[in-house]
Amino acid sequence: MLKETVSQGTIRLKNQQEAIQLFGENDKTLKRIRAMSAAKIIARGDTITISGEAEQVQQTENFIRDLLAIIRQGGQIEDTLERANELSGQGKSLSQETTVSGDLVLPNKLRPKTANQTRYLEAINQNDIVFGIGPAGTGKTYLAVAMAVAALKARKIKRIILTRPAVEAGERLGFLPGDLQAKIDPYLRPLYDALYDMLDQDRFESYLQSGVIEVAPLAFMRGRTLNDAFIILDEAQNTTPEQMKMFLTRMGFSSKVVVTGDVTQVDLPRNVKSGLSVARKTLENIEGIQFHHFTESDVVRHPLVGKIVRAYESAEEEALALKEQRQAEREAQNASSPAPDVNDTN
């Protein structure tokens, strides 16, 4: 016997553009929303009708209203559907979870997409030095650049300095064409890309020419004192301990430093320690310095990126466990082997 529909809810959209943003191209996003919901969802024009058991209808209505709140605040919902649905089942809101406290307004109505990203932004607001550590695609560098641009627009700082170590990931600088600037530009390109997203080209070029924004390899930081600046060190796992110390001691008055990196993607020679790993052990108890960690659940790129990160982490854990097992077996074998007879002359 079919269970009767016991409840119904209605949501009205403001306009056609809002419907397009919510439903997605060819209703792609709407299909995902329907797949996540236990209630029945019917969309006609600017009206969404939700029917089913009372609890299911309420959860689905909360879910969709939360998505609409994000859209109306200028955010994107494609990468946040699962989290928003999860929170709606707990009676919570993603739009509230990803609201940043403080007086800085991020450029282009940018909003964090996970609660952990929100905590990261608040850590940057509240501390002079923040380390953002985690896998690719978690937004650690992009959000740091957004905070820098927001601070510049609010006149809390006078300049932005972005830097990276020029460490090859399998290629050689000498094989790249052009002069030194042309050779190092590929290493700095992700930083340029983030700035282009947040500033129009004319203003960006003007800031570059005037020195308000500086994008340079880490080696160019030596010997400087950086006052009234927002300084970002990206790909910090590829610094040596000496380079990390040099960079951190460049910090001057009224400045803020954000260091980002992924300790699982070190491109240094095997016998060289990562400056990021050493800094994490050395500085973790200093007041005013905060270490913020991201996980694969914070990945906001294509859904496959999170799966790739988890697969590599799993493979690395298995390899480490196998290595430890073999080491233990060798130690046990050595311990059980009889000691050589010192009187044996054969």
TrEMBL record:
Map out region (Disordered) in residue numbers: 320-346
Q: Which UniProt keywords apply?
A: ATP-binding, Cytoplasm, Nucleotide-binding
The compartments listed are: Cytoplasm
Chain intervals with Basic and acidic residues compositional bias: 320-332
Q: Which SUPFAM superfamilies match?
A: Eukaryotic type KH-domain (KH-domain type I), P-loop containing nucleoside triphosphate hydrolases
State the Gene3D superfamilies in the record.
P-loop containing nucleotide triphosphate hydrolases (3.40.50.300)
- State one Pfam family annotation: PhoH
Family, per entry: Belongs to the PhoH family.
Quote the protein name from its UniProt record: PhoH-like protein
Source organism (scientific name)? Deinococcus roseus
